[in-house]
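Format notes (please read before filing issues)

Several people have asked whether sequences and structure tokens are stored in separate files. They are not. Every record keeps both together, in the order shown below: the sequence lines, then the token lines. Line labels are part of the format and must not be stripped during preprocessing.
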Amino acid sequence: MTSPPPLRSTPPPSRLQRLLAPRSIVFIGGKIADMALAQCRIAGFAGELYRVHPSKAMIDGVRCYPSIEALPVVPDAAYVGVNRNATIEVVKSLAARGVGGCVCYAAGFAEVGGEGIELQQRLIEAAGSMPLVGPNCFGYINYVDRSALWPYVFGGHPIEHGVALISQSGNVAMNLTMNERSVQFTHVICAGNQAVLGPADYLEALLEDSRVRAIGMLLEGLDDLAAFAQMAHRALERRVPIVVMKIGRTAAGAERASSHTSSLVGSDVLYDALFERLGIIRVDSLNRLLETLKLFDVAPPIQGSDIVTLSCSGGEAGILADLCDTYGLTTPAFSSEQTQALVAMFPGYVTVSNPFDYNTSIWGDKAAMQRCFTTSLSGAHHAALLVYDHPTIDAPEVAEWIDCLEAFIAAHAATRMPAFLACTVSELIPKELRTRLIEAGVVPMQGLDDALFAIAAAGRYQVQRHARLATPLPRFASGAATESTGSFLDEWESKQRLSAAGVTIPVGRLVSRAKVGAAALEVGFPVALKACGTAFTHKSELAAVHIGLHSVEAVEAAADAITRAAATRALEASQFIVESMAGPTVAELIVGIHRDPQFGPTLVIGSGGILVELVGDSESLLLPTDRAAIEQALNTLKVATLIKGFRGRPAGDLAAAIETILAIATFAESHWDTVQELDVNPLIVLPHGCGIMAVDALLRMSDNQ
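Then the structure lines:
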């Protein structure tokens, strides 16, 4: 079996230690409490058990006491299985007695709104400083210390180390404990309404337990981003990967604001940015959650993305090639020594390449397969994967499959390369073979997609961990931020503020209708003419902008046209911006600031111009950020192809784009509590060495700016 990672230094006991690893437990309530006590025994709990019941003397061999105050000891933990109103009084008594913590099963609190919100606040007040799981939750299972405050059936068995799970869904968590994927849980914690304890509290406790190798999370959202970020950073320090499945990726929860930038941003996008920033692996299915957690439990660290794949089918090799590309894995060729040795093992019709279809010419020859696999795993790749589906029939030929499996195990033992065996159909590695593989240090993965995703994620985690540790934690919304929607500044004022922050804007003048011609002569032709005012936030739609004007007559005519167009919409064009034309244009960007209620001001970078919403090509970054993060975000955009020089066209000034975007981010940081919204669209990228130009801008600031 793969040896566990070195034990971390023993920290002070967590404030949740008594609750999560109790030596004594009291169960309060009727049928639900009876069920929870039975499951606690099934978990193997060897400590003291107590019951509180107003009339019974004994339940299931456990002595009952009429009240919490009558208990002969102060229990470490309590399971509260009474209705929501009685729950508040019970919790108050537990806290007064000094109990180490409790699980509250009852529903009907904040999740139902209305009266439930008030009841939950009363529950919080009743708990005081006592840790409380829930309400509206199943509770927890602790497999390593053999305790459970959980009323329903669960799978799994006592273990020495493994992975933990924090879930906001009790039923899903219960189902995951019964997985047939050899995922072994140390703890399963259902957070429920998170009235007192949230994900950060559970992370803190689990990170203090050296038996926990990775932590999985099933989340709907986070109420304390700062605390969560601190614990995620601690997880990076302690080399404990966090894998998250967040529910609500496609929910249209963000309210559409009046700018293009806000139309690109939803809170889920910002969670993506948060997880990326913190080195957290996000998955989109429960199967992928389990497979990724299993990898981190069983496999040694994977130091990169270079992988060698082995299969006895051309079709499988083709699937592997596509999936490796999808998940960012690379399949470098074998070394010349490896290639020479492999060519000598096979007939001429076998092509030695990576992915490697070793064909059926050596099938059934265990020694030949072992030579092939050992040679394939002896190079500089970071990991190896063998495609293997075990037959479900009982036939003599099945022995050949076992020979293949044993040959791969022997190759791993000889080379010590991180090794994975993956089936194409997830159920085609039976439990006894999974156990055999894990004992030999080979990770059995169920499903090619999930296997390659997990391998790629593990490699990125290892490679990027130090960089993530060196990155400052994000800043989040503060209580000082105004709740006002604020006011828009007109384009001229918006640009002046950006110019003061270091953003290059065109040479221009703000003038009345009578002075547009003279202003154009001062600026120099060609010029652009725009109506200026907070009513003209989307000038193209209002026919309030004319570009490429080469004479005073053209400028005068454009001003008249804008005035007439405005009048048809009951608007008055009293002020105009006359400014120089920017160009030649290599590409157009949109750079904006969006204020999220949780995340505060966030930076959005995307393809700009009139197609911004149609193309939907954008990346979001949390603040503060830096040049490296901005460059990485730019390089993920489709418009990056244009900036780098597309089909012989000149390359754009990427360095100037990065500096300008960084200046906009710095502006947002310096106005953290007052900036509400900012669009710079388009931000014109000029040819390399010529800089960048903010052609249009729209800024909204809070009223207390």
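For reference, the curators noted about this record: The chain has four domains: 17-253, 299-470, 507-580, 587-701. The first helix runs from residue 17 to 20.
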